[in-house]
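User: I'm preparing a small set of examples for a lab meeting where we compare how different chains pack in three dimensions. I only have the primary sequence for this one, and I'd like the structure in C-alpha cell form so I can line it up with the others. Please keep the answer compact; I'll paste it straight into my notes.
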Amino acid sequence: MKDASLRILNIFLLTLFLALVAIPPQLHAEEPASAVDIYFFYSETCPHCHKQMELMKPLSENNPELKIHFHETSRDAEIWQKFMKDHDIIAGSVPRTQIGETAFIGYSEDGENLQYSEQYKAYFGNPTQIIKAIEKELGHKVELGAFVRPAAVDRILPPYWPLVFLLIYISSYFVLKKRLTKNNRMRIWLGGLAATFIVSVFLLLGNIPDTRIQAWAEQFPYPLFVFTIALADGFNPCAFTVLIILLSLLTHTRGRRDMALIGLTFIATSAIMYFLFIMVMVLVGSLFIEKYGHILMVTLGIIVSIAGIINIKDYFFLHQGFSLGLSTQQQAQFGKKASAIVRNLKQGSGRLALALTATITLAIFVNIIELGCTAMLPAVYMTTLVKKFSDYASYGLWTGFYALVYVIPLLLILGNFIYLFSSVRISEETGRRLKLAAGSFMLFFGIIMIFRPGLLNFG
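Assistant: Understood. Below is the C-alpha cell output for the 459-residue chain.
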C-alpha cells in the first residue's frame, strides 16, 4: 500500500513538473524585480514630443522590464501638476522625461553630449543620452526594435560660415560709400543689410544643434533680453510723432516747467497704459500657452512676422498700402488735441489742471490707437515670460520693468526739448529708418518663434 501511494505521489509530482515546464514563460513570469519606471510627459501639440514618441514606443514595446508611464499634460493635468510640485519644477515645458534621478527636457536628434539646464533642472534630451540613461538604470543594453539612431552628419564647412555673407555685405559700404549718397541708394543698401542679417542669422541657427542653441539661450541673462526688446519697442514712430507734436507746440509757451509737467504726464500715462495692456496679454497668454503652446507660438510668430514685413514695406513704400503707423488724418486729429492743451496753458496757471487732464486723455487715446503698431514685440516678450515664470508677482515685476524701459526714448526726447527748447520734427527719412529697424526686429523674432522657439528660453 505504501509503495502504491509513493508511486501515485511520484507520478503527481512528475506530472506537475512537466506541466510547469510546458507552460510558456510569459504566462507565469512575474514582473522583473529590476523593472525601471520612466515618466514621459508630452503634449499633442508639441512637435518635439511627437519626435521623441518615435523612440519611447519601441523602447516600451521591446523591453518588458521598462515601465514607461505616458502622460499627456492636458489630459493628465493633475498628474503633471503634482509631478512638477514634487520635483520643484517651475518651467512646465515638454517633452519631459524622468529616468530614475535623471531628467531630460526637450528632444533633439543631434546626438550632443549631456548639457544641463538650470532653468528646467534637467538635461537637454537627445536619443543617445536618453538611451544611455535607461541602460545605466537597467544595467544592460536595451532593444530598440525598428528605431534607428540618427547618423552623425559630417560638416564640410564650419557652423559659423553664414556670417561671412554678412561681413562681406557690411564691407561693401566702404567701397560704395560715395555712390550711396545719390538717388536714395542708401535706402536700398540699408534694406539689403537688414535682409542679409536675417538670412545669415537663420542660416547660422540652422547649422547649430538645438541643444547648443538652448544652452546658449540660457546663458543669456533674462533681464538683458527684456531690456533689449523693450528698448527696441520704445523706438516707436507712433508715440514719437504725438509727443513731438505736443512738445513742439509747447515751445511757444516759453515755459520749461509746463513742458516738463505736460511731457512727464504724457509719458507716465503711456507707461501705465502699456503696463496694463501687456499684463492683459500675459494673463490671457498664460491660460493658453501650456495647453496650446506650439500652436500659439507659431500663430504669434506668423502675426509678428507679417507685422515686420509691413514695417519693412513702409521703409521702401511709405504711405502706400496698409500701414501700422498713424495715418495723416490721425496725426491731424492728435495735433488738434495737442493745440487745445497748449491753449489752456496760455490762458493762465489756473488752467494747468485742465491741461494735465487733457494730456492724460490724449495719451490714453494715443496708446489705444497705436496698439496695432506696438503689440508685436510685447507678444514676443509675453511668450518668454509665461514659459519662464508661473506666478503673477513675476509677471507684474517684469512687465513693470518692461514699461519703464519702453519710455526711455520718450524721456530722452523730452529731455532734448527741455534742454534745447526748440521745435523739431521727425523727418520722413528718420521715420523710414525707424520702420526698417522695428520691422527687422519683428521679422527676426517672428521667424524664431516659428522655427527656433528654443532660442527664446533665456536664462
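A couple of notes for your slides: Residues 25-33 have pLDDT under 50 and may be disordered. The longest helix spans residues 256-316.

User: Perfect, thanks.
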